[in-house]
C-alpha cells in the first residue's frame, strides 16, 4: 500500500525516522544495548578476533560501514567482500573468525552460498536479516533482526539504513562486553544515535532543493560520487541507487583514488557528487571538489548545515544537520536516496520496478 506516496520507494524513504525510533526502542535503554534475539553468548563474542562480512549490492555497502564500526568500537579486525567472490576464492578459516552475512531478503543466492561455505569450514555464521523467516535465518548459527519492516521497492532504502544502524549497535554492544569505551564517549555516541530520527525528518524537508538538482541531473549520462572513510561506502551506495532506478551511469570512488584514474572522466557533462560533512576528512573532500571543478565538473555537495565555504564552491548543495563523522552515513543516505528517486521520476522511470532487476536475487 503506497498510502499518500506516488511510489513505494518514496514511502519507504519517508518511513526511515519511524523505523529508527522502533529500533532505538527495542535496542537501547538508557545506556544498555540489547540483542534479545542473538543466540551468541557474551563469552563467545568477546573472543571473536576477526569478522568476515559477505553480502551483495546495497547490503555489502552497509557492511563496509559496519566494518569500520567493528574496528573502531569493538576493536575487531573486519573485512568485507562480495558474496559472489568470497564463496569462490576458498576463504581462509581460522578458529576465532566469525562470518557475518547481511541481507534484506535472507534469500540472496550468493550470500546464502557464502553462509554454507563458511559452515562447511566450521566457521560460525551470524546474519543480519530483515526477513527473519528466510532460508538464511534458518541456516545461520545466530541472527540479528533489522526491524526495518517489509521493504517492497526494488531499491533498498530503509533496509540499508537499518543495516547500518544495527551494525553500529552490534559493534557498540561487543565493545561494551570488552569494556572498550570510556563512559563519556559512549554516552556521546548514544546521544548522537538518539538524535537521528529527528535529523532525518529535517533532511526529508529539503526535497524541493533535491528536486531542482534532479532536474539538472536528468539529462546527464554519467555521474561520479566521491566520499572517504565512513562515507566512501555512501558514495558507492549513492551511485548504485542512481544507476539502479534512473539508468544514468554512476560510479562511486574513494576520494583518494580520484586522481588515480577517475578524474579523467570529469567534464562539463559529468557532474561530481562530493560527500563532505564536517569531520576529519572534510578538507580532503574540498581538495577533490577543487580537482573536479577546475576540469569543468559541476559540483553537487552533501554538507553539514552552514558550511559556507563548500556552499560557495558548489553548483548545488544539500545540507544535513551536524553530527559525528562516524554517524554521518546514516544521514547522508537520505539525500542520496531522494536524489536518485527524483532523478528517476524526472526521467519517467518506474522506480519501484526498475528494468532488468528483481527484488530478491535467488539465482546466481
Ligand atoms: O536481499 P539482499 O539484501 O541480500 O539483496 C542484496 C542486493 O540484491 C540488493 O541490496 C540490491 O543491491 C538492491 N536492489 C539495491 O538497491
From TrEMBL:
E.C. designation(s): 2.6.1.16
Cited function: Catalyzes the first step in hexosamine metabolism, converting fructose-6P into glucosamine-6P using glutamine as a nitrogen source.
Catalytic center residues: 359
Residue intervals of the SIS domain: 40-180, 213-354
Complex and partners: Homodimer.
Keywords: Aminotransferase, Cytoplasm, Glutamine amidotransferase, Repeat, Transferase
Localization (cell): Cytoplasm
GO terms, molecular function: carbohydrate derivative binding; glutamine-fructose-6-phosphate transaminase (isomerizing) activity
Catalyses which reaction(s): D-fructose 6-phosphate + L-glutamine = D-glucosamine 6-phosphate + L-glutamate
Gene Ontology CC terms: cytosol
Protein name per its UniProtKB record: Glutamine--fructose-6-phosphate aminotransferase [isomerizing]
Originating organism: Turneriella parva (strain ATCC BAA-1111 / DSM 21527 / NCTC 11395 / H)
UniProt KW Cytoplasm keyword: yes
GO biological process: amino sugar biosynthetic process; carbohydrate metabolic process; fructose 6-phosphate metabolic process; protein N-linked glycosylation; UDP-N-acetylglucosamine metabolic process
